[in-house]
Amino acid sequence: MNRTLTALVALSLAMPAAAAPPPPPTLEQRADQALAADDNAFRFVEGLTTEVGPRQAGTEAEARGRAWAVQWLKDKGFANVVDEPFMMNTWVPGDVARARVTAPFAQDLVVLPLGNSAATPPAGIEGEVVFFRTVDDLRAAPEGSLAGKIAYISHQMRPAQDGSHYGFAGPARWVGPGLAASKGAVGVVIKSVGTDHHRNPHTGGTSFPAGVAAIPAGALSLPDAENLERMFARAAGRPIMLKLEMNPRQIGQTQSGNVVGEIRGRNPMLPPVLIACHIDSWWNAPGAFDDGAGCGIIAAAALNVVETGQPLRTIRVLMAGAEETGLWGSAAYSKAHIDEPIAAGLESDFGADRIWRFDSNFSETNPMLHKKIAAAVARFGVSVGSDAATGGADLNIVRDQKGALIDLQQDGTRYFDLHHTPDDTLDKIDIAQLRQNVAVWTQVVGILANESQSILTGGPIPSAPAIMQRQ
Ligand code: ZN
Ligand code: ZN
User: Which residue from 24, 123, 318, 358 has the highest number of Cβ atoms inside 10 Å of its Cβ?
Assistant: First the structure.
């Protein structure tokens, strides 16, 4: 042996550890690293909003978004990446949306159609506006009393950390147009369900009950809605006349899809943990908050968990299509996979601001695990709620299976400033808060994916038939 070789052998014998890979980080260490420096969630939403932009459900724009997400997941090493197709009834907004008060204080108002709105004739419709302060007031209006008229529904949404005013103000959009149509209205405009004062209407879905034909339905920006209300105060009994022109339309059945990818677990026999978001957005918004950020958060968390070692259970990422226009993807996913038990489901779909509360639906059936998760996320400033988690919109399959659900509640104080408006753009994302989301998700998904017992009960894993019986 020459002298150099002898020296090398001596060196390698002296430092055997130098050749061994470093041990993987613990889950806690990896979550802490995410808090300090996660890049994947931001890169996802930055890429999606830059390379794709708005992604209206069922259109070619959404298809480009799904293809983009498929490629991203493959590039990051996810397994079994697919875009599972489904058919849906597709509504498109058209390119005309005008509202004009013609008397007594003639001026234009900024309006956008609501999802499922009908079109006006090309020349528009004109009618007297009937003011309703609340949906209940509209409900109380006599049958036929709105014949030939345009209903206006006001309400005042307020910002709240838990976003709870959406439940108060949302019905103006969800059911108000259908109620107005059922009482004979030829059109309806609502004050946007939102909390900002930009001249940006907040769109969103509405629906019309069976047997009630859709009518033109639009959202006014908040400043324009308030202007209209001031006109009522000054009209001194004169009718306020509104002209509405919109050309949205239903284009029949088109294809959408659910993008799915997996981190494979060590035991493929155990039901997977399902983490969800939705990939579509409204046509008027790049959807950075709703829900590009959510997709970035869940995917980043899955990648972090695998860095701590291959998890026991498979982690399945579901980036659902066509959430906005009626939870088409959620329904299609449940229908296609109802026979495959899910261990637990959780979704990120409330923006990109910090998580402040943890809820589950197993605090009584599996208190040990509930408390373990609560303790693990406390260091990120997350408190424990007392509500039973109900899961996000795209988790129909878990609700249908009566499975375990977790809600990681995000701060919604400014969510409804941006929701379904052109202001939902990348610059609104606060990277420090986005990273806090990824840290909390990493911690929670890592715990769930390494749980050997039933997440719902803490007992042995039920067989698939037993899960089906619970329905
Ligand atoms: Zn959403
Ligand atoms: Zn939305």
Answer: 318
Say whether the peptide bond before residue 291 is cis (omega within 30 degrees of 0): yes
CA–centroid distance, residue 274 to ligand 1 (Å): 17
Closest listed ligand to the CA of 329: 1
Q: Pairing state of beta strands 383-384 and 315-320?
A: unpaired
Burial of 385 (0-12, 13-18, 19+ CB in 10 A): middle
Distance from chain centroid for Cα 345: 14
In the chain, CATH 3.50.30.30 sits at: 94-247
CATH fold label, 27-91+252-469: Aminopeptidase (3.40.630)
Global model pTM greater than 0.90: yes
Ligand nearest to the CA of 347: 1
Give the residue from 274, 279, 260 showing the smallest Cα distance to 323. Answer: 279
Residues of the chain with CATH 3.40.630.10: 27-91+252-469
Helix ranges (H only) for 2-39 are 3-14, 27-37
Ligand 1 mean position, distance from CA 355 (Å): 16
Which of helix, strand or coil describes residue 238?
A: coil
pLDDT tens for the chain, 471 residues long, are 455 445 444 444 555 556 788 899 999 999 999 999 999 999 999 999 999 999 999 999 999 999 999 999 999 999 999 999 999 999 999 999 999 999 999 999 999 999 999 999 999 999 999 999 999 999 999 999 999 999 999 988 999 998 888 988 899 999 999 999 999 999 999 999 999 999 999 999 999 999 999 999 999 999 999 999 999 999 999 999 999 999 999 999 999 999 999 999 999 999 999 999 999 999 999 999 999 999 999 999 999 999 999 999 999 999 999 999 999 999 999 999 999 999 999 999 999 999 999 999 999 999 999 999 999 999 999 999 999 999 999 999 999 999 999 999 999 999 999 999 999 999 999 999 999 999 999 999 999 999 999 999 999 886 654 444 443
Domain 94-247 in CATH 3.50.30.30: yes
How remote is the CA of residue 255 from the centroid of ligand 2, in Å? 20
Q: Measure 417 CA to ligand 1 centroid, in angstroms.
A: 14
Distance of CA 51 from the midpoint of ligand 1 (Å): 20
Judged by DSSP in three states, 384 sits in: strand
Ligand 2 mean position, distance from CA 189 (Å): 19
The CA 290 to ligand 2 mean position distance, Å, reads: 5
In the block, residue with structure tokens 């609560």: 374
Expressed in angstroms and rounded, the spacing between residue 127 Cα and the centre of ligand 1 is 34
